[in-house]
Amino acid sequence: MWFPRLASDRVLRARPIEGPFALTLKQQNTDRIYCLNMAAERLGLHRAMSCADARAFCPDLISQPARPDLDQRFLGALRRWATRYCPWVGYEGADGLVLDVTGAAHLFGGAGTMLRDMRARMARAGLTLRLGMGATRGAAWAFAHFDEHGTDLNALPVAALRLDAGTVTALQRLGLRSIGDLSAAARAPLARRFGPELLLRLDQALGQVGEAISPEVEPPHYGIALSFPDPIGLFEDVMAATARLLDPLCDKLKAYETGARELTLTLRRVDQGSQQVTLRLAAAMRDPARILPLFARGLGEVDAGFGIDRMRLEATVVERLPVQQTGAMATPASPDRLNDLITRIGTRIGLENIQRFLPADSHIPERSFLIAPAAYSTPESGWSSPRPRPLRLFAPEPITGTGPQPPKQFRWRRMAFTLARATGPERITPEWWLEDDAWRSGLRDYWKVDTREGRRLWLFYTPQNPGWFVQGAFA
Amino acid sequence: MTCDRRSFGVMQADRLSQFPLRCGRVHEVYGPASVAFAAIAGAKGAVLWIGQAWQGAQLNPIGFETFLDPAQLLLARTQNQTDSLAIAEEALKDGALPFVVIETTRTLDLREGRRLQLAAKAGGTTGLCLIPEGMGSNAAETRWHAAPVFDPARDDSTLMRWEIIKNKAGTIGAWNVRWERETRRVHVVSPAGERPGFTRTPD
């Protein structure tokens, strides 16, 4: 199956456009046409043409930037769809699929009927499709790309052998125009001149060398549903049903050595309304006995209405969780308990509001540490401070004072302080490579100030923009 | 100040017997050095620090490094005090973290305070509320006032005056203490010449 206009068909399916349409992709600093529809092709536009030229040819061209990643995903969806014909489906380049229908065609009433069915379905879906069927993968490719209804491989041009353009030109110069010509020619000189690639492709097309189709492994689906003959509404019943869903799901997670990071439980009520309970876990896990109590809070808020008759549990975010060796030696306080606690707290205040400090490499007091969500980071060591730092930092609060020496007496937060000892200055310069409004005032000379009243404060003076500020309080 | 002198005698006798804080209970502290008090009280292991997101002052992990390993510190940022108390109760009851610090902004009523006590008892954990001055709860096991004191001897001093002003299971008292960074323990400073009344007199 070859989809010659996969990219543009995908976009046009979502938003049909009459008239010429093209997708552009920036290549080597120029917008070039990546894919275009039939109307545009009829006007003489072609692929790899620069977008400016295309507009000159055809002023009413509608264009849009291409998204190759989405095209690839779309092809993945098509591949999954194609498994309705046979289980053995692989990708063929970026815009094709290859199906091994051996032993499957008769289920659709023969090869001809099957191809007609494919064409009809794809036409309904709005996709341009070119089909080729052959005894080998190479032959099928050749038919799909060069002669959809052909039967004679020998009559096709040499380009149908999946060769690069240089080889094709060289072969044509030699007078070898069709595959028939090529297979009749002596092999040894061809191999000497073009290398093994040409003969390999020829043999693959003619079936003398095998070529496997590698089907994609279906990614495991972590979802499971349960319907009830009678609606349920009691909290205990819902929990019991959740437990029944969790067990097979966790078995599946275990089989694939993965753990759930986010679980969604969808509860459908008899009146067709549905509610979702999402559980975000602080660490990947697959132990049903530990996950179940974590659902209690979310399920407690569900309004069962006239009853729930269908429940569906899905692990929406899954992470690798290899099986770990547990020793006979007692391990020091396992992190599981802490992770469970973080999850439980996280259901109330949001998982990202539970944070931990990570060291950062900066002399700027506010940037010498990072705050990261605890569920998505691991504790790091490497904290060091060459000089004492305050316990609390706040936004700089101005105080009265002049000159580079700390003021003998000052008022801060409506309290009067008398200087007893000042340690400093410690000069910190702004990080010029980062834009920071707080550091617009330039250099800072930090002083640790002990006051007679007891408080130990962190003051700074800005020599370039004279002023005194309090930024922190020591122990 | 007479009260101070008498309690110094007590301090000599029992060497800060009320500290470390009694496990399975919730305590309260206020005053300018309450953060340092909490850091010292939690220095033994992991700490959950529950604060409200709108409060401006930021804990500085590098400053904490003197007292405890910042990697042991978990922060929880809540929207309001109700959330703070709810997760504090959850964490105290769970017992995965031995020490929970709660920054409160209003007085806990008896019910809230009692629930925290029960949770701490169930989990065998210690709770510490950093309260604004004069907003103590009746359910607290102990209430402390912590204030820094000027130390003329050392310029990297952490000399503080800790005063226990409420104690359900013992006497009250006041101590001048200093954190020994090397040995990671609280050192009670001898009163000679460093009596709080002495250093506190403005000159």
From TrEMBL, chain A:
It comes from the Bacteria. It is an enzyme of class 2 (transferase). Pfam families: IMS, IMS_C. One of its GO terms (molecular function) is damaged DNA binding. The keyword DNA damage applies. Residues 223-309 form the DNA polymerase Y-family little finger domain. The keyword DNA damage applies. It catalyses: DNA(n) + a 2'-deoxyribonucleoside 5'-triphosphate = DNA(n+1) + diphosphate. GO terms for biological process: DNA repair. CDD domains: PolY_like. Residues 20-142 form the UmuC domain. Monomer. Belongs to the DNA polymerase type-Y family. This is DNA-directed DNA polymerase. It comes from Thioclava indica.
